[in-house]
Amino acid sequence: MLRRATATLKSTLSLHITKEGSGHNGYRFHRFTSGSPSQFQEKDRVCPKHKDTIIAFVLGGPGSGKGTQCEKIVETFGFKHLSAGDLLRKEMVSDSEYGSMILDTIKEGRIVPSAVTVKLILRELASGDSHKFLIDGFPRSEENRIAFERITGSEPNFVLFFDCPEEEMVKRVLSRNQGRIDDNIDTMKKRLKIFEALNLPVVDYYAKKGKLHKINAVGTEDEVFEQVRRVFAQVSTVT
Ligand SMILES: Nc1ncnc2c1ncn2[C@@H]1O[C@H](COP(=O)(O)OP(=O)(O)OP(=O)(O)O)[C@@H](O)[C@H]1O
Ligand SMILES: Nc1ccn([C@H]2C[C@H](O)[C@@H](COP(=O)(O)O)O2)c(=O)n1
Ligand SMILES: [Mg+2]
C-alpha cells in the first residue's frame, strides 16, 4: 500500500529533504546532506519504489518537437509529462531565489545547475499517483544525467531522441510565437552550440547502452508520432 508523502523540500540549492517518507507513487525520500551532485552519497538517494515505475527521457535539439510529441504521448499512452524547461520557467516567475539566475541562464541559452533542475523534477515525480513519466528536455548535459542517476539511483527505462536538422529547428523556433525569451535568433544560435557540446554526448551515452530510440523529427506531427507509437509498442513488450 502506498503511503502519503511527508517529505518537505527545503528551497535551497543543496537539495535538503528534511523528512523521510514516500509519495502516493512510492517515491521514497532520504535525508540529503550535501550540495553538489558529486557529493551525493548512497544514503542521499530518492528512489522510485513503485515496482512498475517507467521513466522515459525525451531528448532533441531546441524546436525539434519534444513538447509537441509529449502531448500526443500523454493522450495516447497516459504518461505524466514533465518538461524541465517548463518547470524552470515556472520557478523563474515564482518568488524563487533562483528566479534571476534561471532567467539569465535561459536568455544566454546555457544550462541551469543540476541541483535546481533535479529538485524541481523530483518534486513532480513525488506528487500525484502517476508512475509513468516522460521527462522532456532532461538530461541536457552529462552533469544533469549523473546528478539524476546518483540521486534517484535509477536510470531511464528508455530514451527518445528527436533528430532534426538545425535549419528546421531554427525555422520552428522562430515561428513558435509563444513569447519565450529564448525564441530569438541570437539565443537560438547559442542553444544549438550548447546542444551539440553538452546534450549530444548524453545521446551517445544512451545509444551505447542500447536505450536510445532515434526518431526522424522531420515530417508532419502525425508522421513523427507514428514512429513514436512504434517505439512505445516495442518498449511495452519489454518494460
Ligand atoms: N513535426 C512538426 N512539423 C512542423 N512544426 C512542428 C512539428 N512539431 C512541432 N512543431 C512546431 O515547432 C515548434 C517547436 O516545437 P516544440 O515546442 O514541440 O519543440 P521542443 O523540442 O519542445 O522545443 P524546445 O526545446 O525549445 O522546448 C512549435 O511551434 C510546434 O508547433
Ligand atoms: N535540463 C534543462 C532543461 C532546460 N534548461 C533551460 C535551458 C533551456 O534552453 C531552457 C528551455 O528548455 P526547453 O523548454 O527548451 O526544454 O531551459 C536547463 O537549463 N536544463
Ligand atoms: Mg519544449
What does this molecule look like?
- This protein is an alpha/beta fold and 239 residues long.
- Helix content is 44%, strand content 14%.
- The chain contains 8 helices and 8 strands; from the N terminus they run ββββαβαααβαβααβα.
- The strands form 2 sheets. A 5-stranded parallel beta sheet has the order 5-6-4-7-8, with helices on both faces.
- β1 and β2 form a beta hairpin.
- α1 packs across α8, α4 (114-126) crosses α5 and α6 packs across α7.
- The protein is globular and about 45 Å long.
- The protein starts with 20 loop residues before the first strand and ends with a helix.
- The model is unreliable at 1-21 and 29-35 (pLDDT under 50).
- It is found in: Cytoplasm; Nucleus.
- Pfam families: ADK.
- ATP binds at residues 63-68, 176, 219.
Bound molecules: adenosine-5'-triphosphate, the ligand Nc1ccn([C@H]2C[C@H](O)[C@@H](COP(=O)(O)O)O2)c(=O)n1, magnesium ion
Give the SSE string.
EEEEHEHHHEHEHHEH
Number of helices: 8
Q: What is the makeup of the main sheet? A: 5 strands, parallel
Beta fraction of the residues?
A: 5-15%
Mean of pLDDT:
85
Q: Report Rg.
A: 17 Å
Shape: globular
Number of DSSP-assigned strands:
8
- What structural class results from the helix and strand content? alpha/beta
Helix content, binned percent: 40-55%
Give the end-to-end Cα distance, rounded to a whole number of Å: 22 Å
Poorly predicted residue ranges? 1-21, 29-35
* Sheet with the most strands: spatial strand order: 5-6-4-7-8
What oligomeric arrangement do these chains adopt? Answer: single chain
